[in-house]
Amino acid sequence: MDYVRPTAGTATVLGFDAQQETRAIHERVGILPDGYGLYDRLSGRKHLEYAISLKRASDDVDDLLDRVGLDKTAAERVVGGYSKGMMQRLALAIALVGDPELLILDEPSSGLDPNGVRLVREIARDHADRGKTVFFSSHILSQVESVCDRVGILNRGQLVAVDSIDGLRDALGTGSTVTLTVDAVPDSLTLAEINGVSEVAVDDRTIRVRVDEATAKVDVIDQVRSDGAAVLDVTIEESSLEDLFSAYTGDAPRQGDAPEGER
């Protein structure tokens, strides 16, 4: 976006040089920054009219208001009287002006109630479903997990991993936990013989099995039945994005903290 000049290197956005072709980038990008400024004495509607004019777009203000769930009556009031959630909805509407090819959402759920958070997810998914790109940045990892097709993990300013969530799991070999509730645990369980099973725990009528390979999940269920138990319930837990984030960043040394032999 050329808001900050680099000390070295180059960058492109949608194929355009980030320092030399900023106008072309701004016309194609919508951004909801974490920190933004709105004009206290300007109404919500005037903000949108100005954004549409600035981007030379043809959006309908009322359509944008409906899309972000901002009341049309509230849009006639000056922004200085808005709540944090209302300002966030207005800023999101501004970001959507021009139906941008790239929509950048930085902590988009800040100040929103649960309905607003759900609306942001729906807007992000709808934008992506129409062939656009959404860059979604958040510290609330459960939201990232529910929205994003691919995830990038930053650790102290360095990009340490980029992949789908399943790809990140596979790369770390975090595996899954299969939990079965049975009518009675067989006297002799043979689950340890299955390839991909790394741990088996039994508690009353519950069998928990840690598997490192996806194909082992079905094998575990079939084997429990073969061993003589009736399976009443099955749940499968995958590593959450929070678990993956900790795995990728938790043991990384701080910059400058290299071992003595490497200093």
Overall description:
With 263 residues, the protein is of the alpha+beta class. It folds into 2 domains: 137 residues, P-loop containing nucleotide triphosphate hydrolases (Rossmann fold), CATH 3.40.50; 75 residues, Alpha-Beta Plaits, CATH 3.30.70. Helices cover 36% and strands 22% of the residues. A hairpin with a 2-residue loop joins strand 6 and strand 7. Helix 3 crosses helix 5 and helix 8 packs across helix 10. The two termini are 36 Å apart. The C terminus is likely disordered.
Draw up the topology in text.
Blueprint lengths: L11 E2 L2 E2 L4 H7 E4 L11 H11 L6 H8 L3 H4 L8 H13 L5 E5 L7 H16 L3 E5 L3 H7 L3 E5 L2 E6 L1 H8 L3 E7 L14 E7 L2 E6 L4 H11 L4 E8 L2 H9 L14
Parallel strand pairs: 3-4, 4-5
Antiparallel strand pairs: 1-2, 6-7, 8-10, 8-11, 9-10
Helix pairs in contact: 3-5, 8-10
Keywords: ATP-binding, Hydrolase, Nucleotide-binding, Transport
Organism: Halolamina pelagica
GO molecular function: ATP binding; ATP hydrolysis activity
Q: Strand tally, please?
A: 11
Number of domains: 2
Lateral strand order in the biggest sheet: 9-10-8-11
- Low-confidence runs (pLDDT<50, min 5 residues)? 252-263
Tell me what portion of residues adopts beta-strand conformation.
15-25%
Structural class, judged by helices and strands?
alpha+beta
Average pLDDT reading: 88
Q: Roughly what percent helix? A: 25-40%
Keywords: ATP-binding, Hydrolase, Nucleotide-binding, Transport
Family: Belongs to the ABC transporter superfamily.
GO molecular function, one term: ATP binding
Protein name: Trehalose/maltose import ATP-binding protein MalK
